[in-house]
């Protein structure tokens, strides 16, 4: 995009316009609590018959595609056997899929072991297309393959690709304590040929590792591990730990649920609201690093902090966030949390909520049942959030266990002339001071650049940054 007149006269223009903004740097006008965007009827005829517990985007050589896994046998009317690929307006089976006598697919990810990109599928199953695969299998686009001897227990929602200095490898976490026939306490590394333990691993019995993500919190890229454990590598690490490729580290004292005397991290993701990337953790906890944080918290490399009043289930039963995803559009990003909660920051959100770096918002009326999986994907109509779970509607739209939400990202070029220039700055001031004032949805839809439900100086600063070419 052409940035119009660039920097010439920007100081004077900004100064004059700020002086014209009623209320100066005041808080502006608060608006409704629903996120900007819409539920699309994408899956009205493409639903699944049972829970969708895993979603990912993978490119096996013919372009990025959305893949889904879960406990379903049928998706969009097609027999797919627990895992499928979305192609246009139909779900397509991956060969014979997971053996019908098996349980659930809990995790999906793309990885290249040197033989080309492939989809890796993990969960509570031991067979795929008649082959013994023991909880994890590889789909290369044509055929299913085992990963050595696999595991002796469920891989529950925890797959990630991490390079510890020896090249990218696939990491898997879950309820197992043996991988490839060797001891591996709830987490293991697959190098394309064999499984390896990560030191002493983590302790725990059931649901020990539930989430993995790679993040650099200031000391270099590392694998962050979330779940239900109290030690990692024999050292204290409550619910979350960091593996740097050589040893385990505590993460700021971990997480804890005061009333339940328990800890459980279910989801991890890296999110940048414009002030730098942070690690977001969600799950069954009421504090992180000793700081009150209901079901969700962020780690900046030094300390934990809450995201507003967090997530809650009403009535409270200790169940909160399950999955996290980030939808990115240019320099803007939005964080989404899904799971078994109905309230975020005191707002009714019904199993799915949006965080913009400042506040929580509902996605219309949310879902009618729990969200189990989230991922971001652009099908060609703009960045969108895809959700899977046990629901039948999303925002009142029929969406049997699949749903698509397209957020509205602000456009700094408010007059659509191809330039971010003085006209756009003037239109912002008109929005703030004109006869309609910022109370109109039209004003907010165009000029609420930080999604805090108001039009104020913070939004002007985003616009000013775009005007000067900083964004």
List the helices and strands and how they pair.
Elements: H1 10-20, E1 37-40, E2 52-58, E3 65-70, E4 74-75, E5 78-79, E6 83-87, E7 90-93, E8 104-112, E9 117-124, E10 127-128, E11 131-132, E12 136-139, E13 144-146, E14 155-163, E15 168-174, E16 178-179, E17 182-183, E18 187-190, E19 195-197, E20 209-216, E21 221-227, E22 231-232, E23 235-236, E24 240-243, E25 248-250, E26 255-256, E27 264-272, E28 277-284, E29 287-288, E30 291-292, E31 296-299, E32 304-306, E33 311-312, E34 321-329, E35 332-339, E36 343-344, E37 347-348, E38 352-355, E39 360-362, E40 371-378, E41 383-389, E42 393-394, E43 397-398, E44 402-407, H2 422-433, H3 441-447, H4 457-467
Antiparallel strand pairs: 1-44, 2-3, 3-6, 4-5, 6-7, 8-9, 9-12, 10-11, 12-13, 14-15, 15-18, 16-17, 18-19, 20-21, 21-24, 22-23, 24-25, 26-29, 27-28, 28-31, 29-30, 31-32, 33-36, 34-35, 35-38, 36-37, 38-39, 40-41, 41-44, 42-43
Question: At the fourth CATH level, what is the homologous superfamily of the largest domain?
Answer: YVTN repeat-like/Quinoprotein amine dehydrogenase
Tally of helical runs: 4
Could you tell me the radius of gyration in angstroms?
23 Å
Strand content: 35-45%
Distance between the termini: 11 Å
Average predicted confidence as pLDDT: 88
Number of strands: 44
CATH architect. name of the largest domain = 7 Propeller
| Poorly predicted sequence stretches spanning 5 or more consecutive residues | 1-12, 18-32
The oligomeric status of these chains comes to single chain
How much helicity do the residues have? under 10%
Tell me the domain tally: 2
- Structural class by helix and strand composition: mainly beta
Principal-axis shape equals: globular
Strand order of the largest sheet: 1-44-41-40
């Amino acid at each position: 995009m052409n940035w119009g007149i660039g920097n010439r006269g920007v100081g004077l223009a900004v100064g004059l316009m700020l002086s014209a903004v009623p209320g100066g740097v005041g808080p502006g006008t608060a608006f409704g609590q629903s996120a900007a965007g819409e539920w699309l009827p994408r899956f009205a005829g493409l639903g699944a018959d049972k829970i969708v517990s895993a979603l990912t985007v993978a490119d096996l050589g013919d372009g990025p595609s959305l893949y889904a896994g879960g406990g379903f046998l049928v998706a969009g009317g097609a027999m797919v056997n627990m895992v499928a690929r979305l192609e246009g307006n139909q779900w397509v089976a991956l060969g014979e899929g997971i053996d019908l006598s098996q349980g659930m697919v809990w995790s999906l990810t793309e990885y290249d072991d040197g033989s080309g990109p492939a989809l890796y599928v993990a969960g509570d199953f031991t067979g795929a297309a008649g082959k013994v695969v023991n909880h994890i299998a590889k789909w290369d686009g044509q055929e299913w393959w085992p990963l050595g001897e696999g595991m002796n227990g469920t891989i529950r929602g925890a797959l990630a690709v991490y390079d510890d200095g020896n090249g990218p490898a696939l990491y898997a976490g879950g309820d197992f304590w043996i991988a490839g026939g060797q001891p591996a306490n709830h987490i293991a590394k697959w190098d394309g040929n064999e499984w390896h333990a990560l030191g002493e691993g983590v302790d725990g019995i059931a649901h020990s590792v539930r989430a993995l993500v790679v993040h650099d919190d200031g000391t270099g890229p590392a694998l962050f591990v979330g779940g239900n454990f109290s030690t990692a590598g024999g050292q204290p690490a409550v619910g979350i730990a960091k593996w740097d490729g050589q040893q385990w580290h505590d993460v700021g004292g971990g997480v804890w649920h005061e009333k339940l005397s328990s800890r459980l991290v279910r989801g991890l993701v890296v999110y940048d609201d414009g002030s730098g990337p942070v690690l977001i953790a969600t799950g069954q906890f009421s504090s992180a690093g000793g700081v009150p944080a209901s079901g969700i918290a962020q780690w900046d490399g030094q300390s934990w902090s809450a995201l507003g009043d967090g997530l809650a289930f009403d009535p409270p039963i200790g169940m909160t966030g399950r999955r996290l995803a980030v939808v990115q559009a240019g320099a803007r990003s939005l964080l989404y949390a899904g799971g078994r909660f109905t309230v975020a920051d005191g707002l009714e959100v019904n199993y799915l909520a949006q965080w913009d770096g400042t506040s929580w918002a509902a996605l219309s009326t949310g879902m009618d049942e729990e969200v189990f999986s989230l991922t971001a994907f652009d099908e060609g109509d703009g960045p969108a959030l895809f959700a899977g779970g046990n629901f039948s509607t999303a925002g009142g739209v029929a969406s049997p266990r699949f749903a698509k939400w397209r957020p509205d990202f602000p456009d700094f070029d408010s007059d659509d002339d191809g330039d971010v220039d003085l006209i756009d700055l003037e239109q912002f001031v008109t929005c703030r001071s004109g006869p309609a004032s910022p109370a109109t949805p039209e004003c907010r839809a165009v000029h609420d650049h930080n999604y805090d439900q108001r039009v104020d100086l913070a939004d002007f600063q985003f616009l000013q940054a775009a005007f000067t070419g900083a964004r």
